[in-house]
Structure formats: C-alpha cells, structure tokens
Amino acid sequence: MPAGDAFSAGQVDAIERALAHAHAESDLEYSVFVGAPDGDLREQGRRLLGALGGDADRSVIVVVDPAHRRLEILTGTVAARHLDDRATALGAMSMTSSFAAGDLAGGIVAGLHTLSEHARHPRTLHADRSE
Amino acid sequence: MSTIEILGWFVLLPLLVYVVIMLLVYTPSWVRGPKYRPGLSWWAEPIWIGGTDLEAAAAADSVREGGGCSARW
C-alpha cells in the first residue's frame, strides 16, 4: 500500500452512507478509525471515545489496524445496552472475513450493517401501544 | 505507400492499440481505489470517518468503554 489515502473518494462515500444508515436504524453514533497506531489498539479506541465528549456513551467505534491485522469494536456505556458483546463479535466476524480477502471498505460497510441490525431498539409493549 | 502511411500503420496504430489495452487493464483498479493486501505494510494516513478531529483524539483522555470485542484476521 503506497503512502497516501487509505480509501478512494467512492469508498469513503460508501462508508459514510453505511454510517448514516446504521445511525438511522439504531439511533447510535457510529464511527470508523483506520490506521496503524503505536501501542495498544484498544487504548486508541478509548481515546477516540474520549474525544467524542458527550456523544461517547451512545457511540460505537470500529478501530481497524490493517498493518497488524487487528480490529477492535468499542461501545459506549449506553450503546452497550443495545449492542452486546455477542452482537459486536458478529459484526467483527463479517468485517474480518472481507478484510482477509483484501476488501477493507467492503468489510467495514458489511460490518456496520451487521452491527446496526443487531442494535435495533426492542419495541416495548407499554411504550408502543397506541391506546 | 508513403512514409506517413508507413508510420501510421506500423508505429501509431500499434501505439494506439497498446494505450487502449493499458486503459482497459488499469481503469478498473483506478476506479476501485487503493487495494489493501493483507500481510503487507500499511503506509496510508490514519483516517477517522464519522468521528471528530484526530489531533483532538490524540490529546483526549481515554474513556472506559461499555463493551465491545477484539478480532484478528
């Protein structure tokens, strides 16, 4: 991979659309970091959560390190109620299967769809009834 | 056959065919963008799509996450 941008403009567009779709479907804030940070990848994810300020609790951050072939998905404290660790593992699985085939952008898009599908807020009977 | 015709048939035409074939071969990868190859080095700049400023993130305090998972490929 030469120095420069990780994704083409079309790939960034596709990821942004997937982020918007995931947000619309689950009412959580999603973001994707792709890079090769020094040190612990999970700690990098925690710093990214910290940078989100007030949105951190409702956020889901996907941290991808293509150099070391590592992936971390972090959920904020509120997001974790809607998206448990099993659901994030499913999202991670759909991402890593594409990553292994060399498709970073496609894997991220597929993973975001999986995450948002499992993060739908369950309907509560007393709140959803019209009467 | 004049010199110009000879140049056209034996130089310009092969050159044109060469350029067309080159475009047909390389255009799909130019359109798709950079290709990630697992196992090779990664030199691209870090990018945070849907997030805020990366410089702010570098200076931010870390926040304990509510959950999540790790994976490798």
Shape of chain A: globular
Q: Name the helicity range of chain A.
A: 40-55%
Largest interface: A-B, 70 and 40 residues
Output the strand order for the largest sheet of chain A. Answer: 1-2-3
Structural class call of chain A reads alpha+beta
- Distance N terminus to C terminus of chain A? 59 Å
Main sheet characteristics of chain B: none
Strand content of chain A: 5-15%
Judged by helices, strands and strand pairing, the structural class of chain B is: alpha+beta
User: How can the largest sheet of chain A be summarized?
Assistant: 3 strands, mixed
Low-confidence stretches of chain A: none
Order of helices and strands of chain A: HEHEEHHHH
Cα distance, first to last residue of chain B?
Answer: 63 Å
> Strand fraction band of chain B?
5-15%
Number of contiguous helices of chain B: 2
Keywords:
heterodimer; A: 131 residues; alpha+beta; 3-stranded mixed sheet; 6 helices; 15% strand; B: 73 residues; 2 helices; 2 strands; rod-shaped
Descriptive report:
The complex is a heterodimer of chains A (131) and B (73). In chain A, 52% of the residues lie in helices and 15% in strands. Chain A has helices at residues 9-26, 41-51, 79-82, 85-100, 104-118, 125-128; strands at residues 29-34, 59-65, 70-75. In chain A, strand 1 (29-34), helix 2 and strand 2 form a beta-alpha-beta unit. The model of chain A has no long low-confidence stretch (mean pLDDT 88). By secondary structure, chain B is α+β, with helices and mostly antiparallel strands. The longest helix of chain B is centred in the first third of the chain and has 30 residues, at 3-32. Chain B is rod-shaped. The mean pLDDT of chain B is 87. Chains A and B meet through helix 1, strand 1, helix 2, strand 3 and helix 3 of A and strand 1, helix 2 and strand 2 of B.
